[in-house]
């Protein structure tokens, strides 16, 4: 079990940044983030998430027109912008990822099931990326305010991947950060059924 400082790092004291410092994020750290996140469970070990890390000015300028106006400054200021995507043809990797289960043909025959599975499990893997980044000392800003088609055309069309959300990664400047927004209490959001 994690101690209080570990829980603080991942959840209790972790905050979503509004601004970033200029401290760079090394490629080795991005590799560590992915290598931790890929270990999280997915159904049938399907692992459909695909990630594009944008680290330079050319990539940022390709992304800029796709961002909603309210997100431009926060996203463009991040040292790294990750496009969390999924591969609709994830099932082509299932003979490697889940040998002996014969799952490839099952998903290949049902487009609706494969798309639902790819989106759900790719989103789950994106959440693992958030936790992995925080565990490695990075701050994380998830972003859904962007034009999906523009992002896919600019970055994903060649692979056929589908964009889900963006993750800005870096080291935050927390000066002037407002109080944390409230969260729902257990009794407001949960039911226990026996």
Q: Can I get a quick summary?
A:
It comes from Acetobacter syzygii. With 194 residues, the chain is α+β, with helices and mostly antiparallel strands. Helices cover 41% and strands 16% of the residues.
In round numbers, the mean pLDDT is: 97
Report the span from N to C terminus. 26 Å
What is the CATH class designation? Alpha Beta
- Our count of domains comes out at 1
CATH fold-level topology: NADH Oxidase
**Could you give the order of the helices and strands?**
HEHEHHEHHHEHEEH
How many strands, which pairing sense, and closed or not: the largest β-sheet? Answer: 4 strands, antiparallel
User: Strand arrangement, largest sheet?
Assistant: 2-3-5-4
What low-confidence regions span 5 or more consecutive residues with pLDDT below 50? none
The CATH architecture term is 3-Layer(aba) Sandwich
Query: How much helix, percentage-wise, in residues?
Result: 40-55%
Number of helices: 9
């Amino acid at each position: 079990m994690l101690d209080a400082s570990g829980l603080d790092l991942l959840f209790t004291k972790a905050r979503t940044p509004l601004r970033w410092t200029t401290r760079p994020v090394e490629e080795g750290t991005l590799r560590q983030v992915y290598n931790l996140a890929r270990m999280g469970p997915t159904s049938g070990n399907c692992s459909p998430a695909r990630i594009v890390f944008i680290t330079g000015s050319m990539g940022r300028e390709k992304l800029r027109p796709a961002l909603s106006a309210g997100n431009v400054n926060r996203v463009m200021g991040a040292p790294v912008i990750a496009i969390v995507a999924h591969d609709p043809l994830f099932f082509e990797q299932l003979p490697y990822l889940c040998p002996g289960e014969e799952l490839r043909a099952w998903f290949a025959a049902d487009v609706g099931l494969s798309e639902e599975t790819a989106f759900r499990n790719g989103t789950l893997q994106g959440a693992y990326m958030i936790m992995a980044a925080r565990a490695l000392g990075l701050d994380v800003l998830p972003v859904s305010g962007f034009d999906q088609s523009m992002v896919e055309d600019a970055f994903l069309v060649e692979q056929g991947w589908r964009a889900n959300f963006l993750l800005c990664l870096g080291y935050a400047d927390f000066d002037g950060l407002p109080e944390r927004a409230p969260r729902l209490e257990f009794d407001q959001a949960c039911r226990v059924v026996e």
